[in-house]
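ok trying again, last paste got cut off:
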Amino acid sequence: MQLEPIQESGTQDRRVRRSRTALMAAAVRLVSERGTTDIPVTDLAEAADVSRRLVYLQFGDRDTLLTEAAIDLVRRELLPRTGDGDDTSEGVAALARHFAAHRAFYRPMLTGSCAFAMTSTLNTLFGSLNRPSVRKLFGELDRQTADDLSEFIAGGAATLVNNWVIDGTHPLDPGELTNRLLRLASTLTAGRHGPAAGDRAR
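nice, full thing came through this time. structure:
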């Protein structure tokens, strides 16, 4: 799944862009309200005030629409808040707050017909977020190994978030997930630099 901004062609009609946006917004709202991804295409089209035919023309099928809606939500509301600086804690906190705020949407997405595509999307998201840190921490690694390690770590982080969104207490506590992820990051950093002097003396 791609998380980069969608490249619009110069000839794409504004009405097409508006209908696409309306469909993705309707998808997020209906999945959140109904707690399921088993939503008829007719309902999605009616909620967006477009035809069923347009859903198929723009997205191909319902599950692709739902997955694209999730990607759009991440791109618009999460990625701008994670930043590109060195403040890992704020980026992790923003991520936890985002998934807590939109649990009603992500939970059915992670357990319903879109589960595989949604998990792949999260893996891509986490990979893109932690790749700079991995390269900084393991600078001497070749590019392929650094990318593989980034994806390996991303898969584990995505699993933690999946389980937290699906099985966590209600309401979700963003601070709890933030602390768990930061402890893991700290452990990886400590492992990279070796035990502290006090630990070596034991």
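cool. The two ends are 47 Å apart (CA to CA). The first helix runs from residue 14 to 34.
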